[in-house]
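Sequence design from tokenized structure. All designs in this work follow the same two-part layout: the structure record, then the generated sequence. An example of the structure record is given first.
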């Protein structure tokens, strides 16, 4: 399916029908068949996961990839796992979400002034897409960047999301290595076109359970984003 001049609805259909990466197709499908015991009664999504949110958003949030029993189960980005619990609670607290929880596609959640997406769209083995798999997904993120014309701030969650957003948005090649924004938690950089890039540790269990990312640190990032937009 061509992605020339798509609508968000058309783009999302193209995303969910993608079979470009055999390793990911096999993995996401196997997870959907085997399931997790606590979700045995779920009909897993088991497909690439499209972005979610307000088409007029000024804030774009870019994660890594769908979690095996989170978005790969529910079909919505950051929905159904602990990372999503952290994300949507903060979005609600700072006025970007109608409610603080995201558990399924039909839970009534709506986002305001915010759109959530990821650098890769399929749940990968070991939560590690290959460079080639990231590259295959770039066309989808690039199309979102073109369609979401009101975005003024981008929040990247984790170093890989930071890296692939820079590549997809064109800044990796445009800027010299010295001028490229570097990843660190709560770092802020203004790009030549006026886009503000904010970086954060990803709210994965690996970071939140070890104290590498605390609630105080997490809320401070969203306060920074809110101040930038206001």
């Amino acid at each position: 399916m061509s992605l020339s001049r798509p609508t968000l609805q058309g783009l999302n259909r193209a995303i969910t029908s993608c079979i470009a990466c055999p390793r990911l197709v096999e993995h996401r499908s196997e997870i959907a068949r085997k399931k997790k015991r606590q979700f045995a009664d779920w009909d897993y999504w088991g497909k690439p996961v499209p972005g979610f949110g307000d088409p007029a958003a000024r804030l774009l949030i870019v994660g890594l990839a769908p979690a095996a029993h989170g978005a790969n189960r529910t079909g919505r980005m950051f929905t159904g796992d602990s990372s999503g619990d952290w994300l949507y609670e903060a979005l609600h607290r700072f006025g970007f979400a109608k409610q603080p929880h995201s558990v399924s596609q039909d839970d009534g959640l709506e986002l305001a002034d915010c759109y959530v997406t990821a650098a890769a769209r399929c749940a990968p083995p070991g939560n590690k897409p290959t460079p080639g798999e990231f590259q295959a997904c770039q066309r989808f993120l690039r199309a979102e960047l073109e369609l979401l014309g009101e975005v003024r701030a981008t929040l990247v969650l984790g170093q890989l999301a930071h890296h692939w957003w820079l590549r997809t948005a064109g800044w990796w090649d445009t800027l010299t290595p010295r001028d490229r924004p570097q990843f660190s938690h709560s770092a802020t950089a203004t790009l030549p076109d006026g886009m503000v890039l904010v970086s954060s540790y990803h709210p994965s269990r690996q970071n939140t359970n070890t104290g590498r990312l605390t609630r105080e640190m997490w809320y401070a990032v969203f306060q920074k984003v809110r101040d930038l937009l206001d």
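Residues 14-229 form a domain with the Uracil-DNA Glycosylase, subunit E fold (CATH 3.40.470.10). We note this feature because it recurs in several other targets discussed in the main text.
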